Amino acid sequence: MFSNAGVFDKTPRNGPKAFVSEYALTGEQAKYGTLLGAVSEAGFLIGLERNSDHVMMASYAPLFVNANDRQWNPDAIVFNSHEVYGTPSYWVQFMFRESNGATLLKSQFQTPHPDSVAASAMLWKNSQDQKTYFKIKVANVGKSPINVKISLKGIESSNVAKATKTVLTSANAFDENSFAYPKKIVPKRNPLKSASTEINDILAPVSLTVFDLLKINV
Question: What is the distance of C-alpha 177 from the center of its chain?
């Protein structure tokens, strides 16, 4: 699925708009809901964000599955008579929830790993604190950590306040959540040591990383 991140890049804009319905990675890489499958879906979603002038909607499917009556794998949410957990794919959807209503920013992405890394940048307003943030998402399906440098052009350092980094990853690309370990793979948010218009960081292998930088007016 990651390889389809650019499927709409060259689509003519004078035709019908697109609705990407019932997408998910299936098969050996996905199993019952692996980290690798979820990060692959994240790369695909980043591609949809880049083409949001053409792709109007997208829907992950299936959403729910009864663990005692599995008919399709993977699914976003697994339940039985008294328990429930979200698969890594659910948490990818959670991390993309602010995409609705956000403003996609013009960005350039240079990498020696175009087949395993995808990124997007946007400006969004948090409905809880009513503040505006720069959000940069980077999906890495590669097996190795990658050094990354992010530069915000046309923005002064004084316009950026606190910054956070949220990462979805695990020790093994084929790790899954379960009733026994429902939060084995969940997003973990930590503050960045310094908020600036330039960020130097390391992407974990097989991970979705989201950088949020508070935008302030001076």
Answer: 18
Cβ-contact 105, 123 below 8 angstroms? yes
Across 33-159, where does the E strand assignment appear?
Answer: 55-60, 64-66, 77-79, 84-86, 103-104, 117-125, 132-140, 146-151
Q: Looking at residue 159, what is its pLDDT?
A: 64
Encode burial over 192-203: b for 16+ CB neighbours within 10 A, e otherwise. Answer: eeebebebeeeb
Tokens describing residue 64: 């729910």
Q: Which one is the CATH code of 101-215: 2.60.40.1180, 3.40.718.10, 3.20.20.70, 3.40.50.2000?
A: 2.60.40.1180
Classified as helix, coil or strand, 122 is strand
Q: Per-residue pLDDT averaged across 147-155, rounded?
A: 83
d(CA 204, CA 206): 6
Residue 156 has pLDDT above 80, yes or no: no
H or E stretch at 95: helix 88-95
Report the pLDDT averaged over residues 34-53.
96
This prediction has a pTM of: 0.92
Q: How far is CA 177 from CA 54, 76, 213, in A?
A: 34, 11, 29
Listed in order, the ranges of the chain carrying CATH 2.60.40.1180 are 101-215
